[in-house]
Amino acid sequence: MKTVVIENPILNSPFEMPRRHFKFNDEGITDEVVQSRRPSSYFVPIASPKKKGKQLTFDTTWTQDRAKENDDINFIRSRVALWRDQGYPGITPVTRSLLEYWTRLDRERRLFFCQIEALETLIYLTEAASKSNDEHIFNQLRDAAAAAGTPLLRLAAKMATGAGKTIVMAMLIAWNTLNRLAYPSSGRFSDAFLIVTFRVP
């Protein structure tokens, strides 16, 4: 397998939507830059068994032909992007004020794009998806919950280490609390929160 040396792996600003990515081919990552956002996908490891003495070992090669796109995530991502470009229709005035505050360019500490997008996604699903003819997203989520053996519908955002998950959690609490105060009869917002943490030894 050819060794690829990428002098500078950083292609995008953390404050803007990613617009470039390194291409993968059958041999793995390349230094070729593609002018688009990388679709959400995961690699399916297909191990090649090799016998070494009495023990069977597995060598795994991660290549594009074993990559599978996350169709549901890419669809939701596209719907959130469209909703963002349209100016966030279908949300409460409280939510609009919060989004305007959180996305201001003159903030002392700007938020990362991934933080804003995680927040936007959960807001879209809660406040705007049903008004944008995306009710089927919730049907899929309910089906997945039922298949997992629980009637409890959960929404989650998966974020990388160092992406600022704690800040997103604080913003979600503020969004829920302020909306609940403004609209106490709405069942969409909560004023009670359980925070579960764990400590790595």
Main attributes?
6 strands; 15% strand; two-stranded antiparallel ribbon; 201 residues; two-stranded antiparallel sheet; 36% helix
Helix content: 25-40%
Count of individual helical segments: 5
Shape assignment: globular
Approximate strand percentage: 5-15%
Number of domains: 2
Average of the residue pLDDT scores: 86
Q: How many strands in all?
A: 6
**Oligomer description:** single chain
- The gyration radius over C-alpha positions equals 21 Å
The run of helices and strands is EEEEEEHHHHH
Distance between the termini: 37 Å
- The helix-and-strand class reads alpha+beta
For the largest beta sheet, what order do the strands appear in spatially?
1-2
The largest pleated sheet is described as: 2 strands, antiparallel
Sequence stretches where pLDDT stays below 50 over 5 or more residues? none
Structure characterization notes:
With 201 residues, the protein is of the alpha+beta class. Helix content is 36%, strand content 15%. The chain has a two-stranded antiparallel ribbon.
Give the gist of this structure:
The chain is of the alpha+beta class and 201 residues long. The chain has five helices and six strands; from the N terminus they run ββββββααααα.
